[in-house]
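Running this now, will post back.
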Amino acid sequence: MEMGSQMTVPVKETFFISHGSPMLSIDDSLPARHFLKCFRKRVFTQKPNSILVISGHWETSEPTVNCITDGLNDTIYDFYGFPQQMYQLKYQAPGAPKLAKRVKELLKLSGFNQVHEDNKRGLDHGAWVPLMLMYPEADIPVCQLSVQTKKDGAYHFNIGKALAPLKEEGVLIVGSGSATHNLRALRDTADVASWAMDFDTWLKESLVNGKYEDVNNYMSKAPCAKIAHPSPDHLYPLHVAIGAAGENAKAELIHHSWSKHTLSYASYKFESQPK
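Update: finished.
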């Protein structure tokens, strides 16, 4: 889409990546780090024309895309108290203004009347940390889309549905959040909290069995939903990824690991099915 000389190859998959802690950027002891570093070889070998990331770290009242027209995305260090070397990391992927305009167009066509552009905001760590591992050359244009925490799962699923045509245009759609996300419950221990395990297991079973309506209504359907996600910000990127995959999309768990007692790194692929 952004690279005029590149042939457009449709993308059949969307992804949800649990990005967990910002330590993912430097900590080789985290299995999820190695999973993401092997992403291009083992999970998704196609090189997309551009990448749309929906990150749990960008919350706005109405859908907003970053539309960087003058070169490279800035690297946003939206975390505190971590090792100094993490604040030296940079992921300067090109902006994707054409993709940003297309996202805005598709959302408006689907009834999302208020869609905004941000011409200054770069990539937060929910976007650049996984992308730095997945596509370290930073040579693919990237656009980011915000989440609306005052809305529900079905709303974000419908955002994804509106964006489904992007796959035919060679765009890789990545939701970046966390299968479980309660930062107050983190502990430096290897065992996993029962409530985190219960929610994570329910989520996996619901996804692989295609119970997307239940996932849209996870607050009333899932065990331990409120403690697993005190705020919905890190789950809504999942709903967008499901919606964008298309009707009857098939879900596959592509990585699973834990850290800090409650933090699931479960990541999923959603593959579009032939009509």
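Residues 7 and 49 are 8 Å apart (CA to CA). More later if anyone needs it.
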